[in-house]
Amino acid sequence: MQLSRLFNFLLFISPLAVCRAVASPHKEVYSSGGGECKNPLVRREWRLLPDHEKKEYIDAVKCLQTLPALTSNAVPGAITRFDDFQGVHIRQAEIIHNVGFFQHWHRYLLWFYEKALREECGYSGAQPYWDWTLDSTSESAFINSPIWCPTTGFGGNGPYLNVSGNPFLKIPGRTGGGCVPDGPFSNYTIHLGPRGSIAKKPQCLRRDFAPSLATLRLTKELVRLPHCEKNFDWYDFKSQAGAREDGFFVDQASFHSGPHISVGGEAGHMADVYASPGDPVFYLHHASVDHEWWKWQNVDPETRFKDATGPSIRYDFPFGNHFRGPNITLDFRIGLSELAPAVPLHRVMDTEGDLLCYTYAKEKAVYDPTTKKWVAEELSVEEEDWEACKDPEH
Questions:
Q1: Which residue range or ranges hold the Tyrosinase copper-binding domain (predicted)?
Q2: Virtual torsion, Cα 143, 149, 154, 157, nearest 10 deg
Q3: Nearest to residue 239, comparing CAs of 251, 260, 225?
C-alpha cells in the first residue's frame, strides 16, 4: 500500500561530557590509511557491550557535540563536530541514496565518524551496531530495547503529538513525535535540518516510534532475504527497498529504510532522509546496515570484494526507469566534502584493506532469562553461512 507520494518529502519538525582530547578547529581531520590492516577494530552489537563501554561511547558522542565544527564556512548552521557529519549527509543526500554507491558512501562516513570518536574524543572502542532483528519479535520488545534505556542507552520515544508536521508521510501505528524526554541526549540541541536546510535552526531531538512497523519489516527472515542474491546490484537494491522515485512504500521497507521509519515515524529525526544523522542512533543503525553488507561480502570475498555495480545517478534502473548515467565501477570516486577526500570505491570494499581497518565480531546476542542479561554466543558453522535463505511464509 502506498502511504506517501514522495520519499524526498520525508520530513520532521522533527551536562556536557568531559572530553579527554580536544580538537583544534584547524585540525587535519583526514589521515591516510596507507598500509596493511594488522589489528582491526572489532565492532559489536550494542547490548553486548559492558556498561562502562556503553558510557565511554556515549561520552565520546557528547564530546563531539561540544567540539567546534570544521565545516562552518560551507555549512553556516554547523556549530559542533557532530554537526559536521550531519551536514555532509544533508548536502549529499540527493546523490547518495538509491544509487549503487549507497553502501560505500555510508561505510566511508561511518569510518570517519568512528575515527573522530577515537582520535578527537578519546574513545578506545569500535563503533557499535544495533541488531534490529533482536527487537522485532513484538512491539513491546522494540519499545523496551536496551538501546532506548535512559541510563545505558540513547533515551526513548518522544511524547505523542497528534500533528506530525509532515503532510507527505503517513506511518500507521506512530506513537510519539515530541522531544526525547530522557537519556543522555534529552537536552541536546540539533542545529541543522529539517530536510536540506544547513542554516542554524535550533531544535530538540525528536523520535516517533512505530513499533508495529518494526515487527513487520525487521524480522530475521526478511533481513536475510537480500543475502540470497549472488550479485551486488540486486543485494543492494533489496537492502534499499521501500524508497522509489514514485514514492515510499512502507509495506516494502527494507532493513535500511525500516529502522529509519520505525524510530522516526512521521515526526522524528531518523525519518528525515537528509538530516537523520542528527539522532546519534543513526550511526548504530548504519553500522548494522554495513554489518549486513560485510556478511554478504564475506560469503565469497574473492569475488564480492570486486563486485561494484549499480546506477551512478539516483533513481536510475533498478530504482527507477531511467538510464541517464553509467553504472559504478571500482574506480568510481566518493568523498565527504571537507571531512575527507574522494577515494575510489575499491578502497572501501574490504574493511581490512589499505584504508579501512575494522571487522565485526562473529557472535550473536542471546537473552539469558536467568540473569536477565544479553550474552554473547559464538556462531556455529551453519550460522556463519550468511547466504542461507529462508522463505518467510514457511
A1: 279-290
A2: 40
A3: 225
Rounded to the nearest 10 degrees, the angle between the axes of helix 281-297 and helix 232-239 is 150
Cα–Cα distance measured from residue 209 to residue 270, given in angstroms and rounded to the nearest whole number: 10
10 Å Cβ neighbour count for 113? 24
CATH superfamily to which 7-14+48-378 belongs: Di-copper center containing domain from catechol oxidase (1.10.1280.10)
Q: Tens of pLDDT along 36-90?
A: 899 999 999 999 999 999 999 999 999 999 999 999 999 999 999 999 999 999 9
The set of residues, in sequence order, having a beta carbon less than 8 Å from that of 183 and lying 6+ positions away, is 148, 149, 150, 151, 153, 154, 155, 156
- How confident is the model over 164-181, as a mean pLDDT? 87
Cβ burial 224-257 (10 Å sphere, 16+ → b, else e): bbbbebeebbebbbbbbbbbbeebbbbebbbbbb
Residue with cell 514514485: 246
